[in-house]
Amino acid sequence: MRAKWAKRMPLILALNASLLILVLVRYEVRTAAYETRKRLASHGCRYESERVNINPTERRIQCVGADQHQTEDLFCMERPKYLPNFKNPCWYAKEDGKIRLKCVPYYHILGVAKSSTSDLAHRIRAHKDVLPCNDCLGEKESFYWSRRRYGYEYSMEERPPCNFSYMQQMFSKAAQRIKKTTTRTGYHNLITGDGTPSDFSDFRGWPKIPQNAGLEKPVVLTPHLMRHVYTDPKFILILRNPTDRLYSDYMMMDGRSAADFHEAARQSIQVEENCMKNHTVEQCLYSLDIGKRLRTRIFLGCYSVYMREWLKVFPREQFLILRTEDHDKDPKARLRTVYNYLKLRAYYGPSKLRRVLKTTPQPDVKLRKVKWFVNNQDPYSLHKPVKHRFKRMKVRVNSMDEMWDVDLADLSRYSKENEDYSKWQNYFKKHMTSTSRVVNGKAPPKVIPSHRSVSQPEEPKIELQMTSEQQSVVERADAKEKRHRSLKRAAGEQIATTKKIRQTSNIASKTAKVLKCTPVKENDIFS
Length: 527
What we know:
Layout: H1 2-42, H2 48-52, E1 90-95, E2 98-103, E3 107-111, H3 117-125, E4 130-131, H4 164-170, H5 172-180, E5 191-194, H6 222-229, E6 234-239, H7 242-252, H8 258-276, H9 281-285, H10 288-293, H11 303-311, E7 319-323, H12 324-329, H13 331-341, H14 350-357, H15 367-375, H16 378-381, H17 421-431, H18 435-439, H19 447-455, H20 468-515, H21 522-525
Helix pairs in contact: 14-15, 17-19
């Protein structure tokens, strides 16, 4: 027995050592993970798994209720229980004694104003799976999170505050379409979105949030409110050069000229600098009173200040950040990026779509049918570059340069109807090659007088009176000269035709030798 245990002892020791190493490694990994989370939490960051199930108590944001001068307290509302078979965040709720489907936007174009947000929103809505907002400005902007819930219109005019049910009503038609449309597996794949560009940077309504009552600095802003409502939002942010954006925004707000913009920008900068002497940057940029004193909305261009507020609540992965300059340069590539981010069906052409169809139960779909289907879809036809194919007339020639003179019109037969035709014809024949040198004053001296002589009008000719006999003699001489010219022209054409026939026959015989076929006869070529 002792001999057997002596043989097994090294194996037992090795197993114990392995177990001890695994325990130590696991302890080190957990310690490192804990330190990493602790360090990230100190910078205001959290893991997504921690964010999804956060409630107001865990965030230390409690329901305090709202008085008559404050907005609705969203933290007193439970987060909706979103349906798993819906791509868009939707849930069923009881309304007027009936169970109705309620939906909120799947994606938000947060900003920034005057940075091609309208163009991007229009291109996204061109997709067949994207539905517009039924009660938004231009089917794009709801202004709920930045204006209407605080009692302001999109033009900052005061109005009664809107509650969260008002936002649900703005997407009621989209909710009906989403409910009726399903895939073969019963999945509701349609989505809707909101493209309010002021949501990213307009926090001027923060004093009306119940949790901020009586505070000098806000503790709850738009990102905290949206975090309580959404579980996995999609944020699209398109940024532009702040100076270009400010000028475009100023001209949209009834700006007069570039000089007036310069003075307005200087006044706005002076107001913000005076405020920042006694207050923080956030207090000056988020102040409604300061905003009313500005002639330009310069506070919208401080991107980093607002981005820090959003990243305190949401992870970087939930933001798709684009540039206006890149969007203008290659909108097709940017749209492809957006479609991938929103997980929309986009195959970028018939060939790639057919590859996907090969993996389906109907893999024998012809490419011709796929092209016909894709060309009738707006997302493909609206962004596909137009290519015109014009009909062309085929002309057979013997050599490459034979048809260069086709576009030269022969006006000799109309010389009688055109005054001084022969004079200008001779002029162009002699001096066309030196025209550019004459214009630059570099032509020889003998060429310039010829231009002047041609361009100067000639003296009127004096017609002589002739008798009938003299006129008949002149007419017979003209007729004789005309017959002579016509015979000479016919002879020249016959000689030229004979040369062409000989050249063509030589080419045909040489080609026949190469191809080892019967040579083509001359009559067959010109028949």
